[in-house]
Amino acid sequence: MKKTKIMALLMALCMLFLALASCDTSSLDSEDSSSSEVREPLDGLSAYDIAVKNGFTGTEQEWLESLKADTEVIERQPIINQDITQNNIAISTTGGDLLGATSKGLASAVSVFAHFTGEHGELLSSAGSGVIASINAMGDAFIVTNYHVVFSPDSVSEDGISDNIVLYLYGMETVDAKIDATYVGGSMNYDLAVLRVEKNEILKDAYARGTARAVDVALSEPTPGQRVIAVGNPSAEGIAVTSGVISVDSEYIQMLGADNQTTVEFRVMRTDTPINQGNSGGGLYNDRGELVGIVNAKIMSSDVENIGYAIPASVYEAITSNIIYYCYKQECKSVVRPLLGISIQVCEMWTELDKTTGLIERHEKSKVVLVTEGSLADGKVNVGDIVISAQVGTSPVKVVERQYHLIDALINARVGETVQLRVERVETGKIETVSFIITEECLAQFK
């Protein structure tokens, strides 16, 4: 029997079952008899009889075998949802596995507890979350959390950083399973901090079991409407999961820093995922379980519902790498970033429709508005030049489609590396490449 006939038969049987399941017995007493459609009674016919009536030739056993074989083929067919936009662009998605994504997020999550001593000898505590940036079979790991989780303005320590930081893996929030961590470095201006754990048996065993793993970072930037899950330690009651979507993919917010005195500005993503105290430092994941951000703030107001913020994964990657490079086993405890001596500003904004994905993309054009005298850029870049792309060392060229692309790229620049900028000259409109070699003198710490 042809496969198309079998599929048609299966659809007919499914429609029959749905009709029986949704049959409303009250309709039997209805006075509405306006329908003139005459249906052939099926009472007394078996499924095989119906198959024969629809053209099948063969024994009942042959029918059962053929049905079984084609059912297996149908079950292997991928489920694809298609939508056709007004511009005739077909968008096909299979969706992500939310349970699988959550499992990956839980395995890379930790709850963080930092303890401080106050000026009168009192014990102060802070609770938050963190993600495992790296881990190995020996039980060594780097953990990333928010700076404000491990810093207290009321601490008597010189730098305000806790010297008693304890971590717990998901499902192991017991005294016997605590993991001691040390502070590597961090920045209030980026609200990120890196912690270190070495030769820990709990981590070693969990890594071997597959219940502790390094976080996977999303390769592409999230878009508004993308589904995300937050994994954190709300109310210091252990790791928990909430879900929502990306509301805004990139924006800037100003707020008081961890010292409760300094005004800081963060580039963040906005999400409607429920965020509570204790979620700070926890991961925000897409539906593939890949990290898209580090939760760090929310609006707390009776007039606002579900506006939370997360530091983008690109910033997380750049700052984590920066801190480990400059601070691990070093005296430096802050982010170190080179300054080229230029300031850029968005001069044009527009949107485009990606005809491959069907998604609307935002674009920006940034121009140089200030060149500091005596800086690396002095004499090489002019006010009014448009920055097109940037390359740090041998890393891939980063097209500056948004202003923050250049800023994020420079966080990864190290002493001795060459930074190349492609600029469109304000005077001639010609596109040229200018190069700078990063020196010790152009480095600045961002505490």
Outline the structure in words.
It contains eight helices and 23 strands. The chain has 447 residues and is α+β, with helices and mostly antiparallel strands. Strand 13 and strand 14 form a beta hairpin. The termini are far apart.
Short description:
The protein has 447 residues and is an alpha+beta fold.
Largest sheet features: 6 strands, antiparallel, barrel
Order of the strands making up the biggest sheet: 3-4-5-8-7-6
Radius of gyration: 29 Å
Unreliable spans: 1-44, 67-95
Count, helices: 8
Topology:
Layout: H1 3-21, H2 47-53, H3 60-75, E1 81-84, E2 90-93, H4 98-107, E3 109-117, E4 123-135, E5 141-145, H5 147-150, E6 164-169, E7 179-187, E8 192-197, H6 201-209, E9 216-217, E10 227-232, E11 240-256, E12 263-271, E13 283-286, E14 290-298, E15 308-312, H7 313-327, E16 335-338, E17 342-353, E18 360-371, E19 386-392, E20 398-399, H8 403-411, E21 418-424, E22 431-437, E23 443-446
Parallel strand pairs: 9-14
Antiparallel strand pairs: 1-2, 3-4, 3-6, 4-5, 5-8, 6-7, 7-8, 10-11, 10-13, 11-12, 12-15, 13-14, 14-15, 16-23, 17-18, 18-19, 19-20, 19-21, 21-22
Which key phrases capture this entry?
447 residues; alpha+beta; 6-stranded antiparallel barrel; 6-stranded antiparallel beta barrel; 8 helices; 20% helix
